[in-house]
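Example 3.2
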Amino acid sequence: MTGIDELRSLLLTTDRLLARGSSPQALSRAVATGLMIRLRPGFYVDASARGLRRDDRHLLLILAADRCLLEPVFTHWSAALVLGLPSWGLPLRTVSVSRYGQAQRSRNTRLMKHDTAVVEADEILNVGGLRVTAPARTVVDVARACGRDASVSVADAAVKGELATPASLELALAQAAGRTGIKKARHAMSLVDGRSESVAETLSRLSFLDHGLPTPETQQNIFDPHGNRIACVDFLWREYGVIGECDGFGKYFDGNDPAEVRRRLAREKDRDAELIALGYRVIHWRWADLEQPWLLAERIRRVLSPAAR
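Structure, written as tokens:
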């Protein structure tokens, strides 16, 4: 994700553009022809912003809102993004901001969702010049408003990154009692596993639950007979002697030259060979497999069944 300061430098205001010699008519033509993008009334970015990632485009909307509102506090998915939490499954077309302090703008619009729940002073952090709800409050707000899988992914990342703890999430749930969506938030928080290292691992774990697979241990060390650690595996069905690995292409390809990619793939192949030599069966899957979870579940079930016999 691009840095907040770098994104802030991309913002162009109407006043700034007019001072450069543009006219209101020229601005309208630039938007109509696609040369510029209007984020909200009075705020623009160059057309090159279309090449930015989805997360960065939402941060631009946040920065524009921050400039035109009076000391806003960003909440829910907007706060999650500023805090560096994963955006998978979150509704990033709309900026979520606390209504408090913005009573004159309290109605939801196409661009803004105004949260009506009170935000206490001790629930506000300043991150890169932006005021956002604290991590535990943010996680619970997301879980009240969004789907289970996205909510658990955000919570897993918050706990893994030590932004929140199980205790702080419990407290945030207690403080949110009576608010809309609190029941589904409690359910989502009951599924949190701070050992999860990616959204893909979280979705894998939830898929196992949904499709009735045995619950595996997560992030388990595997040792050889001499006590030397061979690997830390994503999932371990210990009683079946089966290891599951959720592979993201990023760990092989992101920023790596071809030689490094080959080295990483070779190391994984050697590691799998050692695990198999110890008697384990190893199954790998990728993000694309998570898009058809019923097929992945059936594949894993077929591996577990012979192992059980």
